[in-house]
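User: My collaborator sent over this chain with a note saying "see what the structure looks like." That's all I know about it. Can you take a look?
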Amino acid sequence: MHTSGFRRRRAAGTLPAATALATALLATVVPAAPASAAELAPRVDLTVLVVDDGGGAVGAIASELKGSGTPYRTVRLTDPARPVIDAAFLADTVDGRPRAKYQGVVLPDEAPQGLAPAERAALTAYEQKYAVPQVDAYTWAHPGVGLDHTSEGGSSGVLDGVRTDVTAAGRTGPFRYLDGPLTFEDNDPDVAESYGYAGRPREGYTSYLDMPVAGGGRASLVGQYAHDGRRELVVTFAYNQHQRQFRALARGIVEWLTDGVHLGQNRNYLSVHVDDVFAPDARWDTERNCTPGDIDCVGGGDGGASTPPIRMTRADAQYAAQWQRSAGFTLDMVYNAGSGEEWRTEHGGSDPLTAQLVADRAQYRWINHTYTHPFLGCVQDTSTVPWSCAKDAYGNTRYMSRAEITAQIRDNHTWAVNRGIAVDRAELVTGEHSGLRTLPQQPADNPNLAGALADTGVRWIASDNSRDPQQRPVGTAKTVPRHPMNVYYNVGTAAEMADEYNWIYTSKEDGGSGVCETNPASTCLDEPLDVTTGYASYIVPQEARIALGHVLGNDPRPHYVHQSNMAEDRLLYPVLDRILADYRGLFADNTPLVNPRHRDAGTELARRAAWDKALADGRVTAYRIGGTVTVKAPAGVTAPVTAPEGTRKNLLLGTAAFGTGYAGARSAWTAPEALQSAVTLTLPTT
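Assistant: Without extra context I'll predict from the sequence alone. Here is the result:
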C-alpha cells in the first residue's frame, strides 16, 4: 500500500490579487509576438525546471516527466552546492536571439522557503517575460493562490474515499481526457492517505477539479490562477506518484505546464498474456499447503497426481471468445502445443479444448511458449531444496543445449503455422522465463540461449518484471519484462486462491507460513481471508488496483496469468472486468486503452531506452520559436513529441498532419525526413 506521507501546509506569503487583464494576457499557447519587427521572438527550450524540496508532490511530477520522456532539470533546495536561480540561470541569448531555458517551472508551493527573495523575484520576472507557466505542487487554500480560506465556505481534512469531479473548464482544457468522477483512494481505513484544502475560487482563478462542501456549493482542489501576467496551476491536496488520483491527473498537469507542446508522450497500456494454453497446470493442495509435483511438497514428486490438474475445457474456450467480444479486449494466448498433444494422447485422442481454440484462432493473438514447456536453463539438480544447477565432472554448470532450445521454439511455431494460427516468430515466452538468469541458482543466462534465439528468428523474449525489470539484450534479441498478476497459476477456484493467499500472507499464529513475518518486503494480513468470499472481496479489488496503476503509469509491459485462471471458477475475468470498468468510468473516449502486442511493447521500451540515453548524454536539442517547434536528436534515435491537435510536420515538400490523436493531443515517435537534419513542426494558430 502506498500512502502520501502528507503534511498540512502552513501559511506562506500571500501574492497580489489577480486581475482580469492578466487572464486575457495569458489565454494563448504561443508567446506574444515581439513588440517590433527588430525584436526577435524568443526561443523557448523544451525543458522543464523542477525545484525540489524533497517532498512527495514534486517527486510525483518529476516521475511523470521522466516516465513520459520529457526532459527536466532539477534544483534541489537541500543541496548546499545548488545553483542560484537568477536571470542568467533562467535565460540567455543564442545566435542573437533571446532564449528562455525552461518552458515551465515546478515549485513545491507558490513561495518555497528554500528560495531566497531574489530568486523568487527572478522567477516571477522570467515567467512574466516569457509567458512561462508555474505549477505549485502542493499548497493550502488562501487568497495568495486565488482561493478563499477553507474557513470561508471550503473544507480541509482527509480526502480518502472522497468523490471529486473535473469541471467543465477542466474537461475542455488540460484534463479533457477525463470523463467521469475521480474518487480518491482509500486502501486502508486505518491510515490517512491524502489530505487536502478545498477553497472557493476568487477572481482570476479557474477551477479544474472540485468537490462538494458542507453548506452547499463546490470548492476547488486543482485550478489555474492567473495574475500579474503569470499563470500558476494550484494543487491543494497531498499525493505521491503511486496514488490513483495523481496518476489520473498527471497527464493534464504536464499538458498545462508545457502548454501542450513537449518532448515525450504518454499512453495507457494494457495487454494480458495467458500462459500455458493447451497445457494443464498443477493444483494447490489445501491440506499440505503446497503444490504436488514441487520438490518441496511433502509427498511430492508425484507429478501432481494427488490433486487433479487444472485445464480449460471447450466451454471455457467458448466463454473466453464471448468475453472478448463483450469486453472489447483481446487476450494473448501463450501456447504449448506439445503439451496439448500429450494431453490428447493420454485421453484417447480427443481434445475438445484445442479444437475450439483452433477454430476461434483469429479472435486471439498467439505467442510461442515452447513446445512442451521445459526448463531451458541449467540442468536442475532436484536432490536439494531449493534445487541447484547440476555440474559436470569438471565442476562446470550443465545447460540445456542450443539444439534442444531451438527445437522447442521451432516445433511449437511449426505446429501453429500448420493449423492456420497467425504467430510471429520474433516473439517468445519461455516456460517460467527459463533460459534467462534465475537468481540465486543461475546467476547468468544459459550461454546457449542467445544462439537458439538467433537460429529461430526470435527478437523479443519475455522476462519476469518482478525479477528482471529492465529491458536488456540477449544476443540479438531483447527482453520484454512482464508484470505477474497475483492470480496464482496453481488454483482453479476462488476457495483455493484464498487458501493459498492466506498461507503466504498470514502469520504462523494465524495458520500461515509466516513468510510475511520474515520477509521485509512483505506484510501480513490482519486476519485470514474467508475462503468463500475473500477472493471477490479482497484479492480482486487489490489486484485490479495494482494493474490499473501500471496502466495509468505509461507502462507498456504486459501482464501475465495462466490458462488455469480461465478454467473452473474463471478467476481472471472478475479482475479484468474491474480494471476495464474502473478505467472506462474515468477516461473519455478520446483516451482508449492501448493493447500492444508483445513485440510492440518491446519496441516501445527499446525506443525509450535510446531516448533516455540521448537525453542523459545531452545530445537532444528542442525548442519553440513562435509557432514552430524544432527537435534535433542523434542519428538513429527517434524522438517522442506531443503537440496540440492541428499540428503539422514539415516535409521537404509541403506538410502532413503530425502524429496520432490520443487524449485530445497529437503525439508520435518521430524522426527527420530524408535530407532533413531536424524535425520541425508548425503549431496551429489560436
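A starting point for your reply to your collaborator: The chain has a mean pLDDT of 93.
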